[in-house]
Amino acid sequence: MHFESATRKGEVMITVTATGEDMNHILFQLRDILRSVDEQDEKVVLSDEQLKRQLDFNIEDLEFSIRASRVLIQNLKLLTMRDVIQYGRKNLLQARGLGVKTVREITEMLEYAGLNWNSCEANTYD
Questions:
Q1: CB atoms within 10 A of CB 94
Q2: Domain count, the chain
Q3: Domain housing 29
Q4: N vs C: which end of the chain shows fewer Cβ within 10 Å?
Q5: Taking phi first (over 0 means left), then psi (-120 to 50 degrees means alpha), and beta for anything else, what does residue 37 get?
Q6: pLDDT for 69-116, tens place per residue?
């Protein structure tokens, strides 16, 4: 795995080369970088390509709890972070097998990836 970050006034550039097993580690490093930038009162804006990569990240490659993985992938057939966001927090809270604690876990994973429930333009499952 190769990980580099550089900052310029008002910008953060991150370059990552990795295999599947290293992706969780990368997400956690990205989260730490984003938090440190937030603490400096600078805004991090992902490029369209970076946002697309994060949204298309496969859920199976993340370290969700067994319950969260099973419900998201097997029951709801959600395969990517984009699918989860488009499905929406409200729908997840109503899904059989998911409670507030598990939806909080999913929300935290979105945040670690630099995403949030508004990262997609529209929730298509509503």
A1: 9
A2: 1
A3: 2-112
A4: C
A5: alpha
A6: 999 999 999 999 999 999 999 999 999 999 999 999 999 888 888 888
Residue 68 is encoded by which pair of tokens?
């969260």
Say how many residues make up the chain.
126
Q: Is residue 9 part of a domain?
A: yes
Rounded to whole angstroms, how far apart are CA atoms 15 and 101? 33
Sign of CA pseudo-dihedral 20, 22, 28, 33: negative
Q: Is 19 among the domain residues?
A: yes
What is the Cα–Cα distance from 107 to 102, expressed in whole angstroms?
Answer: 9
Range 54-83 burial, b when 16+ CB lie within 10 A, else e: bbebebeebebeeebeebbbeebebebbbb
Residue 58 lies in a domain: yes
Render pLDDT for 10-58 as a digit per residue (tens, 0 to 9): 565 666 666 666 767 677 667 666 666 555 544 456 677 878 888 888 8
CB-CB contact of 73 with 62 (8 Å): no
118 domain-assigned = no
